[in-house]
Design a protein that fits this description.
Helix content: 55-70%
Structural class: mainly alpha
Order of helices and strands: HHHHHHHHHHHHHHHHHHHHHH
Largest sheet: none
């Protein structure tokens, strides 16, 4: 097994601890030092006493919160303590002992399930901020996918404290596909009562852990169908990405996606034209994955003919998925290959995509209806790859594959 790569050079870590313990820096520097050590976790175990010293001299504020969390994460577990012992220490008079108890419970993970209810109680707003943050951090390690934990994480996203918000977001970010069975229902159940920023995080979490789950797809389709005003645009990108991940399972949303191609859609009210074009481009990419309704294929062809810089590549990709009118896209796709190479902006939803390469692939997907493109594709396929750029080599390979697809 390969050795774990340290986050920082080992000689730097004691310096961080020394500077934090010195007390000679202001709050901003101390917070940065504490967060750095906390992120290092066990790698900074030797600096636990330095962190404890900073915590003891910080009776309130950001330094108190960050040093408390840092101490919880860097402290080495104390042997011989049961979960019950650690729970009792969560209320110890010594603040350092409290931090270490949180840290040891966190390190125990699922073995500390008996601590879940006491930790949930610690997340209550009546408790100190550092206890609430540490409790959420622990729950994320001990019982991340339960209904109670997820409700707590989502609630934390709306908290006034940025530390509590961050803890809730990080806990949700740790959910993985293996948590989906337990986590999907409570995530969806907590969706309806939250604001746009929270909705964005919940959508991203659902997309990451269960992109094709039936309930997740139904929720994303429902959200897309109801997105009809400019406020909904705040998380439209996350909805589109979730639908993209769902693929053909989200075919029921096709008509709404086609409607978005109409630049008069209410979603664009008061928005910059570039933002509208990016949404249209994103929508076209999703349509390429979900499937274009047969009755609406003309809308994709019209978008291809528009030849807009923000939507051209997505339109090219979508045109390759048309089941009945794909042949009508061939002439335009060939013109892209025979014309001057195009410079297009980098799209946040479509990385490493190039018009020419996408056009070749689209022609291949169109199949036998793209036979008029054979001469152009043959010319590309015969290029000498020794003198070509990496992208041009990919074009040669794609052209050879497209010719096979077109010829059947």
């Amino acid at each position: 097994m390969a050795a774990k790569t340290p986050l920082l050079a080992p000689r730097i870590i004691p310096v961080l601890g020394h500077e934090l313990a010195s007390g000679k820096h202001g709050n901003i520097v101390d917070v940065a030092l504490a967060e750095s050590l906390g992120n290092l976790g066990e790698e900074a175990a030797a600096q636990a006493e330095d962190v404890a010293a900073a915590l003891e001299r910080s009776p309130f504020g950001d330094v108190q919160i960050t040093t408390f969390i840092a101490l919880a994460r860097v402290s080495k577990p104390e042997s011989g303590l049961s979960v019950a012992d650690l729970i009792s220490r969560l209320d110890a008079d010594d603040v350092s002992a409290r931090a270490r108890a949180f840290g040891q419970l966190r390190a125990m993970g699922s073995r500390a399930k008996d601590a879940v209810d006491p930790l949930l109680a610690k997340t209550d707003a009546k408790n100190k901020l550092y206890e609430r943050v540490a409790a959420i951090d622990c729950l994320g390690a001990i019982d991340p996918a339960s209904e109670k934990s997820i409700a707590n994480f989502v609630k934390a996203l709306s908290d006034q404290s940025r530390y509590v918000k961050s803890a809730g977001g990080l806990a949700l970010a740790k959910l993985r596909p293996n948590h989906a069975k337990d986590a999907v229902t409570p995530l969806i159940g907590n969706f309806g009562s939250v604001g746009d920023e929270v909705a964005r995080t919940v959508i991203e979490t659902l997309h990451r852990i269960a992109p094709r789950d039936e309930k997740v797809v139904a929720k994303m389709v429902s959200l897309m169908q109801s997105a009809t005003n400019k406020s909904d645009i705040l998380y439209i990108y996350e909805i589109l990405e979730a639908l993209r991940g769902a693929g053909p399972a989200a075919t029921g949303v096709g008509a709404r996606l086609i409607a978005i191609l109409d630049r008069k859609d209410a979603l664009y009210e008061g928005r910059h034209p570039v933002e509208a074009e990016e949404i249209i481009g994103h929508t076209l990419v999703v349509l390429a994955e979900v499937g274009v309704p047969a009755a609406s294929e003309g809308a994709v062809l019209a978008e291809l003919e528009r030849d807009e810089k923000f939507t051209l590549i997505p339109a090219v990709r979508a045109s390759g998925t048309l089941k009945t009118k794909g042949g009508a896209a061939v002439k335009k796709l060939v013109s892209i290959l025979e014309g001057k190479r195009r410079l297009v902006p980098t799209l946040p939803f479509l990385h490493d995509a190039y018009p020419e390469l996408e056009a070749i692939r689209a022609l291949g997907r169109i199949g036998t209806a793209a036979k008029d493109a054979i001469p152009t594709l043959e010319k590309i396929s015969r290029r000498d790859t020794k003198s070509l750029s990496q992208i041009e080599v990919l074009e040669v390979q794609a052209a050879r594959r497209a010719l096979q697809q077109i010829r059947g």
